[in-house]
Amino acid sequence: MNNRIKALRIESGLTQKELAEKIGSTSKNIWAYENGNVKPPYDVLISYAKYFDVTTDYLLGLEDDFGHKDEVIRRPPYDVTDKSLQNIIKLFGVMSELQKAHVLGYIVAYLEREGVNVGKVLGY
Q1: What is the rounded distance in angstroms from the CA atom of residue 72 to the CA atom of residue 66?
Q2: Which end of the chain is flanked by fewer CB atoms within 10 Å, N or C?
Q3: Above 50 in pLDDT, residue 72?
Q4: Residue 53 vs residues 12, 27, 41, 59, 92: alpha-carbon distances, Å
Q5: Which of 82, 87, 56, 61 is nearest to 73 (CA)?
Q6: Closest residue by Cα to residue 35 from 58, 61, 5
Q7: How far apart are CA 86 and CA 82, in angstroms?
Q8: pTM above 0.90?
Q9: E-assigned strand segments in the chain
Q10: Over the stretch 99-113, which tens digit does the pLDDT of each residue have?
Q11: The pLDDT of residue 123
């Protein structure tokens, strides 16, 4: 479970402090949950699930991110077999540099409005 909650936070570009503020916890607690030192109480688990739009079963490792409850397998962050990603790559390939810059600007602005630390996600 601790790996999943940490991965969700990192994929969202949030620091432990930022996540703590968003779910009404403390960065010390987030650290303890992520390191497996403390199991989050049910109310915190529910806050995680609501914030990241996943099920508590996913957080607990009882289902994968497709909702399957059998063998739990985590998809890689960039699944090259994903049809949406393939379509994005195809469309991006026919754009001019200026068009690419506009699209990337829109994506960055959108994600930042949604609270994603884009710089952190991109490694800046």
Answers
A1: 9
A2: C
A3: no
A4: 12, 21, 18, 11, 28
A5: 61
A6: 5
A7: 6
A8: no
A9: none
A10: 989 998 898 888 888
A11: 73
